Amino acid sequence: MFFWVLALLIFCGFVWNYKRQLKIADITDKYIFITGCDTGFGNLAARTFDKKGFHVIAACLTESKSTALKAETSERLHTMLLDVTDPENVKRTAQWVKNQVGEKGLWGLINNAGVLGVLAPTDWLTVEDYREPIEVNLFGLIDVTLNLLPLVKKAQGRVINVSSIGGRLALGGGGYTLSKYALEGFNDSLRRDMKAFGVHVSCIEPGLFKTGLSDPIKATEKKLAIWKHLSPDIKQQYGEGYIEKSLDKLKDTNSFVNMDLSLVVECMDHALTSLFPKTHYAAGRDAKTFWIPLSHMPAVLQDFLLLKQKVELANPKAV
């Protein structure tokens, strides 16, 4: 009996793996739209999919980055300036894309644009500190999706949302984690709503990667700017050396940081071209082996492991 069960499991695993390797027939007539192509994952994705033969429409925030990307790619690739937090800009962009793709529709929408915002203890922050990452990472993404969704439905294409392990575990205070948790909910509801239309929706959850988004110098500068305006009570509770100690703790996680951005682009590629794309992709060894498994663990274990990375406060009773 055990032998037959084992044989069935091996057979199912073989079939499952075979299905995952099946690809769509032709990509040279397909259009994809990618946000956040100035740097990082989006920039690499635009260049990669252009080389593969897709008609790439790459949205950048700055003209200089847009010009640089266009200079490095083929005539098929078009660049556009897009601020996802500007509704009128989003509407104009969607209309331009509609005119460009015509009756073929839009095969792929990759929502990659995002900002980190301020990462700091919650009691350091104001509601304004939460707004930017939520406006960009959540409302901007939703606005772009809703405006381009009719074109994706026409092509029976793909929507790919770039989330984060921060959408599974709250690693620090600030709007970034909130925006990614909400993005996961939007992704799940969209996936179920679009199934009847033949549209596949996938979510990519990268671990820690070395990109401009995760620049520790910029993050520290933002923390220092907030520290200057904190009340004397909070400064006494945390201690004058808190930020420096936090940086030292951050160095302990360097072994988790992935340097190869193509790991995320490979997930995008599979979600775009597989006949059977996954609903969720974990990108990076740290995401697969630590963060995602930890997100399924009891809260008491999560708290124990994550709090070990926190700096001990100087005087938490000084309230």
TrEMBL record:
Keyword Nucleus in annotation: no
Molecular function, one GO term: oxidoreductase activity
Alphabetically ordered keywords of this record: Oxidoreductase, Signal
SUPFAM superfamilies named in the record: NAD(P)-binding Rossmann-fold domains (SSF51735)
InterPro entries for this protein: NAD(P)-bd_dom_sf, SDR_fam
PANTHER family the UniProt entry points to: DEHYDROGENASE_REDUCTASE SDR FAMILY MEMBER 9 (PTHR43313:SF15), SHORT-CHAIN DEHYDROGENASE/REDUCTASE FAMILY 9C (PTHR43313)
Protein name as catalogued: Dehydrogenase reductase sdr family
Species of provenance: Lynx pardinus
